Amino acid sequence: MIVLGVDPGAANTGFGVVRTINDRMVALDGGVIETAPELPASERLARIHESLAQLIDWHEPKAVALEDLFFGRNVGSALSVGQARGVAMLAAAQSSVPCFDYTPQAVKKAVCGSGSADKGQVQRMVGSLLGLPDPPAPDHAADAFAVAICHAGTPGVRERSVAERAA
User: Fold this and answer.
1) Is 20 helix (H, G, I), strand (E, B) or coil?
2) Is 146 helix (H, G, I), strand (E, B) or coil?
3) Which end of the chain has fewer CB atoms within 10 angstroms, the N or the C?
């Protein structure tokens, strides 16, 4: 099963494509979709949408796993992350790929065993779980891989994803 993990953000949207073969996970693709801060929000969101739609076309994932919105102190940041999540969901929906949401704590727990793991721990564990020679960088890409790993490794999710895709 192939999962596209997304760490949404208006400036930097991380993506990580993971394939699960039996109980082994391998990285197929990963990186960051960067948008220029001087662009209007609508153009930034269009770039994110286009890039994710292209990734979905290329990799044909059975699921898109998104990091859920974290409400911190910066409301403006939360709104822009929500908008990036929305265009990611739209790209998936346009290709009939189901979306699944995971809280940052659930992702960290699935990857590191602790919901309070720091970014460095997440990067190192993602690298280890995917058999990469070095931890993925930048942290947005590592976070996206972590979301994909969380989805692919959650009991029952693979079967549910395949059933939803077939329906």
Assistant:
1) strand
2) helix
3) C
Q: Using the Cα atoms of residue 97, residue 102, residue 108 and residue 114 in order, give the sign of their dihedral.
A: negative
Q: How far apart are CA 110 and CA 133, in angstroms?
A: 21
pLDDT in tens, the chain (167 residues): 999 999 999 899 999 999 998 888 999 999 999 999 999 999 999 999 999 999 999 999 999 999 987 656 666 677 888 999 999 999 999 999 999 999 999 999 999 998 889 989 999 999 999 999 999 999 999 999 999 999 998 654 544 444 554 55
Sign of the torsion angle spanned by Cα atoms 131, 2, 58, 148: negative
118 Rama class: left (phi>0) / alpha (psi -120 to 50) / beta = beta
User: Tokens for 53?
Assistant: 């739609």
